[in-house]
Amino acid sequence: MAGLVPSTASDHRDPEALHVRAAELQSILETRLADVDRLGSELAMFTMSYRQRVGLLYEQLDELEREIAEAEHDVRAAREGGSASADRPPPARPEPLPRFTTDAVRKLFRDVAKAIHPDLAGDELARHRRHMLMVEANRAYAVGDEERLRAILEAWGRRLEPVQGEDSNATARIARRIQQLEEQITVADSELAALHDSPMWKLKAMVDEASGRGRDLVRDMVGRLKRDILVAHNRLDAIRSIR
């Protein structure tokens, strides 16, 4: 990703150069926003697939391990005649895993929707950007991705939309537009960096890299989890057969 070259002092003295610079920045911004939309969509699709294929298996394994801990406690209690262990509390039940959509996610999604609704746009570019972000927010909401929803909202709070209204000084107006475009590009770059730095994106990168070598990491995870679940089932059955 090429770095942003700041406008020079000479740009601000030459109206024609200002218009050229604004057009260049507009093109850069559209490319950056398209990258954010594309990566956000890819990450949302990967996250949903991963949670469906792997996350549910982790939940199943966690539940089995909880049942094993309780069964072992019951066996110990029976062996000790219930006296010494009567005062010993059973193993703590783990907190239930959060569902994909929580109250916090719902509230955050409402805040995002109020901030970026396309009807609030001042022009077609802004409307398109808001629409694409709303699509991304819907995807994040569907998988309960609070981190992504928060990133969308925070990035939007730093974003400036195109200058509206008339200005007696056309040169000053286009100069302000250039400044806004540069700030919007900086925000888009921050969004891209946040996507690349997210744990789920790093996992996706590992999966993609392995796929390029002909290996399916997610399938391997699923296989290991299914084996662990089978072992846990057998262990639970063995413990219960003692009682």
Structural Rg: 27 Å
Count of separate DSSP helical elements: 7
Low-confidence stretches: 162-168
Biggest pleated-sheet summary: none
Output the structural class: mainly alpha
Helix content: over 70%
Number of DSSP-assigned strands: 0
**Number of structural units classed as domains:** 1
Q: What do the pLDDT scores average to?
A: 79
| Coarse morphology | elongated
Distance between the termini: 64 Å
SSE order: HHHHHHH
Strand content: under 5%
Label this structure with key terms:
single chain; mainly alpha
How is this structure best described in words?
With 243 residues, the protein is mainly α. It has one domain. It has 7 helices and no strands. The chain has helices spanning 15-79, 103-116, 124-142, 146-157, 170-197, 199-212, 217-242. α1 (15-79) runs parallel beside α3. 15% of the residues are buried.
